């Protein structure tokens, strides 16, 4: 019985469940070496990721510096544009003030001339009434005629001096107007050329290079993000595998508490490493979110650039409004000129009537003998009737002023789309705009009219006058003032159709295609790659768990 008990004790020692076989020891050593290799790979991977993060931060700082430079440049350009607009506004106000001063001066001159003409007319009317009472006596008529002739000669000299002075003033005004007009055109063309060249050079140097560089850097960042996501998925799969292995080791540890203390210590160290790797993974996720935030800032900077472009367009619109105001000032100048021509033509017409009256009086004065008194009385009656008809004609007949359909517009040197950065606008209008020449609107100039018109003919006739004709010319000038004092309306017309066409040219529709951002496509590809990587990680985990179950089953 004693021997049987000893044999039973030996059998129990051989079937001890706490004993470790050589196979298990070799298996655990292989696992430990694999884990050490993985730990070394993780450390090298972590170092590479840290280097990449430093490179990305440097690239981000460069992007911030470039963006700040672009914003500062655009602000400086905007300030220069605003300064130019202020200068143009000051010029326009100065031109308006000069125009107002000129109009006030000319109105005062016109009022003075009207007052002088009115006094002269009243004086001549009174003298005419006195002469009508003394026509029966020839001696009284001659004495009165001599007095009137002396007065007329004085008035003629004064009128000639006034005409010469007026011609000199007109020549000086026209010369100043032409010089100022040419100077304004030269200044505007030079400034527009300078602005276009500066803008062209700045856009070629700044905008094109920065946009291409940002696109290339965006593509590089997206590729690096894809690599980081692949590494994250791989680390996630390895992490899950390590967790499953940790669970299996804990189950074995519950069975082998005393024999596996060293293995448990190593496993705890590995768990700490895994936790640190998870922390590093979380840090990388935060970095990814930070770079997404930087991408949003780049998009916001693009929107700011678009707003600055809109402000530049608004400044161009204000410039066009100023050009329209300049056009209005030119229209007012042409209006004053046409009114002056109207007054001059009216004066010439009255001179023609006076010359006709003088010729009629000459015919009546050819008979001077006593035997022809009856014939002389009849001719005098005919003469008075003819003079009455001439005076009525001076009151009724009105001269027409040539109308001005339009005034030459202020045309810009460059149009939208000439520089090549913006597509040219598509005009919806089929018919070309109407362009008129200044000669077709106003007719002959003042010098040509004096040289070839009716004034030259009147001067030729005026030299043939004698004493009697000069007397009646003075009378007819007084009657002609009645016609000049009647209210006249300005006949300066503008074509409404042309104004509509000009506004339609400014409102031409421009069809521009919007550029899509490349980040939309990269985000979609990023999500698809992430989903495929998660599926691959799940498949790897399933295969690994099946292999472990097959190893644990024997």
TrEMBL record:
* Sections of the chain in a coiled coil: 32-169, 291-363
Does the record's keyword annotation contain Cell division?
Answer: no
InterPro entries assigned: CFAP157 (IPR038844)
Q: Name one GO molecular function term.
A: microtubule binding
Instruction: Say yes or no: keyword Coiled coil present.
Output: yes
Q: Which GO terms describe its cellular component?
A: ciliary basal body
The protein here is known as Cilia- and flagella-associated protein 157
Q: What is the lineage of its organism?
A: Eukaryota, Metazoa, Ecdysozoa, Arthropoda, Hexapoda
């Amino acid at each position: 019985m004693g021997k049987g008990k000893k044999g039973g004790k030996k059998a129990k020692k051989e079937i001890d469940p706490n004993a470790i076989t050589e196979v298990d020891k070799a298996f655990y050593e292989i696992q430990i070496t694999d884990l050490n290799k993985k730990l070394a790979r993780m450390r090298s991977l972590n170092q590479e990721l840290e280097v990449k993060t430093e490179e990305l931060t440097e690239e981000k700082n460069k992007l911030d510096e470039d963006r700040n430079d672009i914003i500062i440049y655009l602000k400086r350009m905007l300030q220069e544009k605003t300064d130019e607009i202020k200068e143009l506004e000051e010029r326009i106000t100065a031109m308006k003030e000069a125009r107002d001063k000129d109009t006030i001066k000319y109105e005062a001159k016109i009022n003075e001339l009207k007052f002088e003409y009115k006094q002269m007319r009243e004086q001549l009317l009174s003298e005419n009434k006195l002469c009508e009472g003394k026509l029966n006596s020839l001696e009284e008529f001659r004495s009165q005629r001599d007095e009137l002739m002396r007065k007329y000669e004085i008035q003629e000299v004064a009128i000639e001096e006034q005409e010469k002075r007026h011609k000199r003033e007109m020549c000086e005004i026209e010369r100043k107007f032409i010089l100022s007009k040419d100077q304004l055109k030269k200044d505007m063309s030079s400034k527009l050329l300078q602005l276009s060249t500066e803008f062209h050079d700045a856009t070629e140097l700044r905008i094109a290079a920065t946009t291409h560089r940002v696109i290339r850097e965006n593509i590089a960042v997206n590729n690096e993000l894809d690599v980081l996501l692949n590494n994250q998925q791989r680390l996630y799969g390895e992490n899950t595998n390590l967790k499953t292995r940790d669970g299996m080791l804990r189950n074995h540890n519950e069975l082998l508490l005393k024999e596996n203390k060293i293995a448990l210590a190593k496993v705890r160290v590995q768990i700490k490493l895994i936790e640190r790797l998870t922390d590093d993974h979380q840090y990388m996720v935060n970095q990814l979110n930070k770079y997404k935030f930087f991408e949003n800032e780049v998009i916001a900077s693009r929107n700011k650039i678009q707003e600055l472009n809109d402000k530049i367009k608004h400044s161009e619109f204000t410039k066009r409004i100023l050009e329209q105001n300049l056009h209005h000032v030119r229209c007012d100048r042409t209006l004053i000129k046409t009114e002056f021509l109207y007054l001059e033509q009216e004066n010439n017409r009255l001179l023609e009537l006076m010359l006709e009256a003088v010729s009629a009086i000459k015919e009546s004065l050819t008979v001077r003998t006593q035997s022809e008194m009856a014939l002389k009385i009849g001719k005098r009656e005919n003469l008075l009737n003819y003079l009455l008809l001439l005076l009525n004609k001076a009151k009724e007949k009105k001269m027409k002023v040539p109308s001005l359909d339009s005034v030459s517009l202020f045309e810009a040197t460059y149009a939208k789309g000439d520089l090549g950065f913006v597509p040219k606008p598509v005009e919806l209008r089929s018919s070309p705009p109407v362009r008129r020449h200044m000669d077709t609107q106003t007719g002959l100039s003042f010098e040509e009219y004096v040289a070839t018109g009716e004034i030259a003919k009147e001067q030729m006739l005026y030299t043939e006058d004698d004493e009697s004709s000069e007397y009646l010319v003075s009378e007819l000038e007084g009657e002609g003032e009645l016609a000049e004092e009647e209210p006249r309306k300005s006949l300066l017309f503008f074509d409404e159709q042309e104004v509509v066409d000009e506004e339609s040219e400014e409102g031409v529709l421009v069809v521009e295609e919007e550029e899509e951002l490349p980040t939309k496509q990269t985000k979609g590809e990023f999500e698809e790659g992430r989903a495929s990587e998660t599926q691959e990680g799940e498949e790897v985990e399933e295969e690994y768990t099946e292999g472990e179950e097959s190893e644990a089953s024997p």
